[in-house]
Amino acid sequence: MIKKYILGEPIDTESVVQNIEVSPGIPKEIAEVSECTFCIEMPEDARVYGLGETVRGINKRGWRYISNCTDDPIHTESKNSLYAAHNFILIWNKKKTVGYYIDTPEKTEFDIGYTDPDRLFIRLNSPNAYIYEITPDLTDNKSKACESDNPLTKVVRQFRYLIGQSYIPPLFAFGYGQSRWGYKSREDIYSVIKEYEEADIPLDSVYLDIDYMDSFKDFTINEDAYPDFEDFVESIRKKNIHLIPIIDAGVKIEDGYDVYEEGIKGDHFCKKEDGTNFVAAVWPGRVHFPDFFKPATREWFGEKYSFLLDKGIDGFWNDMNEPAIFYSEDGLREAFEKIRSFEGQNLDINSFFEFAGAVEAVKNSPKDYESFYHEYKGKKIRHDKLHNLYGYMMTRAAGEAFEKLCPDKRILMFSRASYIGMHRYGGVWTGDNQSWWSHLLLNIRQLPGLNMCGFLYSGADTGGFGADCTEDLLLRWLAVSIFTPLFRNHSAMGTRQQELYRFPHKDWMRGIIRLRYSLIPYLYSEFMRAALYDDMFIKPLSFVYMDDERACDTEDQLFVGESIMIAPVYTQNVSGRTVYLPEPMKMLRFEGDILTEEIEMPAGDHYIPVSLKEVVIFLRHGHVLPLVKPANTTAELDQSDVTYICNNASEDSYVMAFP
Amino acid sequence: MIKKYILGEPIDTESVVQNIEVSPGIPKEIAEVSECTFCIEMPEDARVYGLGETVRGINKRGWRYISNCTDDPIHTESKNSLYAAHNFILIWNKKKTVGYYIDTPEKTEFDIGYTDPDRLFIRLNSPNAYIYEITPDLTDNKSKACESDNPLTKVVRQFRYLIGQSYIPPLFAFGYGQSRWGYKSREDIYSVIKEYEEADIPLDSVYLDIDYMDSFKDFTINEDAYPDFEDFVESIRKKNIHLIPIIDAGVKIEDGYDVYEEGIKGDHFCKKEDGTNFVAAVWPGRVHFPDFFKPATREWFGEKYSFLLDKGIDGFWNDMNEPAIFYSEDGLREAFEKIRSFEGQNLDINSFFEFAGAVEAVKNSPKDYESFYHEYKGKKIRHDKLHNLYGYMMTRAAGEAFEKLCPDKRILMFSRASYIGMHRYGGVWTGDNQSWWSHLLLNIRQLPGLNMCGFLYSGADTGGFGADCTEDLLLRWLAVSIFTPLFRNHSAMGTRQQELYRFPHKDWMRGIIRLRYSLIPYLYSEFMRAALYDDMFIKPLSFVYMDDERACDTEDQLFVGESIMIAPVYTQNVSGRTVYLPEPMKMLRFEGDILTEEIEMPAGDHYIPVSLKEVVIFLRHGHVLPLVKPANTTAELDQSDVTYICNNASEDSYVMAFP
Fold first, then answer.
1. How far is CA B87 from the centre of its chain?
2. How big is chain A by its Cα radius of gyration, in Å?
3. pLDDT tens-digit profile of A252-304?
4. Which whole-number Å values give the CA distances from B161 to A29, B10, B389, B417, in the listed order?
5. Contact present, B211 and B184 (Cβ < 8 Å)
6. Rounded CA separation A328/B349 (Å)
7. Which of A337, A369, B113, B400 has the fewest Cβ atoms within 10 angstroms?
8. Hey, is B51 helix, strand or coil?
9. Predicted pLDDT of residue B351
10. A458 with A484: CB under 8 angstroms?
11. How many Å apart are CA A16 and CA A420, to the nearest integer?
């Protein structure tokens, strides 16, 4: 059951697709502490879930999360904000399960037992929000009861019914993709593909980061580095490999650049208070930001994707759309002035940190976010009042255009910044993570929250974007990412190159990737089922064994679809790990794509050796895992030749959602 | 057995105290790859230990560590250098155990399976080093065989014999200490003590961070904030509480400031190439660095501690002695010039990051470390050739002075930067960590390496220095730190205040601190035993159960002394953890200092519930744990009234090393 409450005069985010009758006041379990602060008591046994893409564990108790889309590549535990704003929380305790969706595009704080271990505070930026209270009674009209229905999954399904069906990507988006910020030319891309071919490692896509563009200008090609782009795309498509270019939010200010000139002419850019176009800087230097809140601007910008679609491109990633601001013209001027004032002084602790801070402060400055405006539903609204919607609206521009430009084709689309609602137009990757073992664990822990919020198509930069990856970390990370819908190896310029073929044990890597391809029919089928029935594709143990405290504490094992549980190794220099089985399961051990052991195990703790070349999967009682022969691309997968691994279930009890 | 090899013309670091005959060439298992690069093959089963204070796990395989003392407060997994340089590694495999000590004060890289999973590369900065090869045959004259003697502990004991006996602190240094960068006045300190008294939580020391000084000048007192300092110290000592002031490496340049003027007059400061005093900046702004490599300078600076000793102070922490450099006079000038060149430009990706980097680059710049000189053993030597010894020499200055100034008294001393050899003069804390759960785990994992290298008196900033601490993190951290010799709660200005009395469940905290005081006789006795017999006070499981692969993989359990194993909880929102017992042990469960459960457990995996107010200890078979009644200070501990908890051993089998 969904109840809707209105606080003040909120902005309609268009994240919700159902008309819900408005109830008066606010939910009775939420106490208004002050104009913008609300408090929910948390019993000792309460667990809090949700918030999508955030730091820390699956149970969100014990930290202060701030929904404020931020370009910050250092995702340590003490960060409050990442790239996304997913304001859905779910509170469970033995007596009650309830979800809240705090629908406001402004900065929103969830203090979940940080200030007071037993209280959850919600702090709004202004006293305006839609609040949805969601309880487990199903009111949607989707007939199939999901297998693991319980109060938690029911609240999630209600919420997902409220916000609409999740984006479904094309099949090739489940293939393995290679990416790196630093591929400089057509030759670099050819070389990557050739090396994958020579290593006989499956590959479905290669990503084009910012260097494919001419001077980082959206919808342009660097013709020197990528001559005959259309032929280039075609030559690679012949190998069944897709090129996936990046699109950034900022449009370079440059006379003669068509997108810039059209934007000026069509009045598509965000304005300062005085009506002039706001100038920020990102990769190309000075840019304007398209005002994606205007339908006409979305239409214009969305249509621009056809520049690449027409060249054979069928997938994109939208980046820098928090929006990231390296500096604004005004902010940089002020910084220079400030810096000048320190020259020639004896800088002590205070003045030195002020000096150093003056430069740091130009990046993603709150002041800048308060200095430009959007036109939304006929009103001029300051950016910070809409901030968390910007990435959503950019990706919506693309999604709306794809529906028009290629209605019969699924286009791959995922974004860095997101707000709930964007899940209907694309997926997300979890941004600029690092080659840290702790980020492999973070990756595991972010997936359930993203799934709750509708972002089924998601994944992390496998191997880590920043910092230097090691072979063992990459192997262990592959063994996790083969279960995530988005499966991309991506790394940053200046870090160790981490294409799989560069490491001594590329045969081990090949084996793991091949297993992914064997799993694709299962993964895609389970993904479709989750998308169509508003279910989660990836679930934490606590959503299946709610009353088993051990299971609920276990935040390093996940259900992937309805048949299997994974228990990844995310620690260096270990030969295995302890796995908790809440019920008897069948352990399947794979060396690469070869099943080497299949053994029923009783409930309880088990130490499971897992070498670097192995993947271990746990098949639930009464369930089936379909596997096909691997291929080197999804296009070549033979989905008709299925092997079924069963645990007290018959082969035909598994029905492919979309065989 | 210890063999000594000489490579090139190394600098004598005075870290070694034994005369070892020189063998020709280099150890036969070390291959010279190039002039400065050496390679050791690592069999698949090889584990590598040592390196003291570093990031990551106990087994050092899988990363590239660079000994280069660095003031960097963000200790993520991808950092190569922390504050210390501890060039001792220990390689174990089923066939052989060998240790190497690479004795050079220059930057030294240990690439342990990073570039190649099966090779260990040692890269020197110049082809000059003493190399000690240590094998398990004991040649020292210490009669007592340590209980858990095996090839690993024997190599460690040989190494420790080589480098001399570890620093032993006074008993009060085992008490609990409260610290914060941000105590501004005498009143702040009184208030902290009063709150601890009112909360009835034991407390032995309060730390004075940089604000007790007049303008951050070493050996001065801010008289406005701390009037009548001597009376103040005395009034607190009456409560059996010790004040522990910080001492920084840099001496403020200020006419009329006695330390500065004496330094100039005595020619005690580091010089630039042209013979003028090198100007760097740290807390006070512009400073000179004392040239601690000169015996006369050490004597002069060491004697300065009497300024505080005479006021009743009996403990210090030496900080900023990597040395940290916020900027140098020359470096800052260049940065301003560079910044000016960017003004008015359209800064694109490259130029913007150059601009932003220009400021970042002034901190701890390699160029600065190459621009000043020391006088060492009669030679003028550029700083980078001696870099890793600077903190050691500073602390040695203090240690040598204490021996002279107060030969009959133990003075508490620990340092941030360190090199092997410094362990004879003081302990270390692990620097500016963060309030991260992952740093609680890092804390656990750093202790064995520090112990191997002789830094028995060590500990982390409990609760985390940077970032905001939560109650649950602090409780779990206390439950670890009650086992570390140095036990200090310390946090940074601007972070959440984390004195224990500020949290709702201070009664739980009180209980855990009281357990520490009950344990002190055991801890001090085991510490003394380790110090006197060159043993480790804290050991990893792999040093006790070498041939048990599970035990060796287990890097989140530790032996503390010879009787007990700890298995701390370092994960948020869990009700317990899985513990691996390599052999049967007795589990002791404490709620605060009250023993609530005592149960023998068989070898194997056990899930152990541990609530936030509990501490669980595992008592080894055939061992005894002595406990006393807690008191509110170490001075009030009655060490005669001992309760013995036994696991198949008799009470009198436990002999206090120093009852």
1. 15
2. 24
3. 999 999 999 999 999 999 999 999 999 999 999 999 999 999 999 999 999 99
4. 66, 21, 20, 22
5. yes
6. 13
7. A337
8. coil
9. 87
10. yes
11. 8
Residue among A143, A137, A64, A53 at smallest CA distance from A99: A137
- Residues of chain A with Cβ-Cβ distance to B605 below 8 Å are 578, 605, 607
How buried is residue B127: exposed, middle or buried, by Cβ count under 10 Å (0-12/13-18/19+)?
middle
Using CB atoms, pick whichever of A57, A64, A351 lies closest to residue B573.
A57
**Smallest Cβ distance to A359: which of B57, B283, B356?**
B356
How many residues make up chain B in this entry? 659
Yes or no, beta carbons of A470 and B63 under 8 Å apart: yes
Query: 């110049």: which residue's tokens?
Result: B126
Q: Which residue of A has its CA nearest to B504?
A: A116
Closest in B57, B78, B473 to A573, CB measured: B57
Short-list B282, B72, B185, CA closest to A351: B282
Torsion-angle region of A235 (φ positive above 0: left; ψ -120 to 50: alpha; else: beta): alpha
A286 near B CB under 8 A: yes
A576/A584 Cα distance (integer angstroms): 20
For range B345-358, the mean pLDDT:
85
Q: Could you check whether the bond before residue B323 is cis, i.e. omega within 30 degrees of 0?
A: yes
Contact assessment for residue B433 and residue B445, using Cβ atoms and an 8 Å cutoff: no
Q: Residue A308: name the closest of A187, A412, A193 by CA.
A: A412
Confidence (pLDDT) at B140: 58
B-chain CB neighbours of A572 within 8 Å are 56-57, 59, 61-63
What does the buried/exposed string (b/e) look like for B349-383 if buried means 16 or more CB atoms within 10 Å of the residue's CB? Answer: beebeebbebbebbbbbeebbebbbbbbeeeeeeb
Pairing of strands A379-382, A373-376: antiparallel
Confidence at residue A351, expressed as pLDDT on a 0 to 100 scale: 87
- For residue B148, count CB atoms less than 10 angstroms from its CB and return exposed for 0-12, middle for 13-18, buried for 19 or more: middle
Residue A20, φ and ψ in degrees, nearest 5? -115, 135
- Per-residue pLDDT for A138 more than 70? no
Burial grade of B144 (CB within 10 A; 0-12, 13-18, 19 or more):
exposed
For residue B143, the model assigns a pLDDT of 46
Residue of A nearest to B55 (CA): A436
H or E element, residue A345: none
* CB proximity list for B35: less than 8 A, separation 6 or greater: B127
Q: In this predicted structure, what is the pLDDT of residue A143?
A: 46
Residue with tokens 């487990």: A136
For residue range B536-583, list pLDDT tens digits in order: 999 999 999 999 999 999 999 999 999 999 999 999 999 999 999 999
Average pLDDT score over chain A: 96
**Can you read off the two tokens belonging to residue B462?**
């409990």
**What CA–CA distance (Å, rounded) separates B116 from A611?**
18
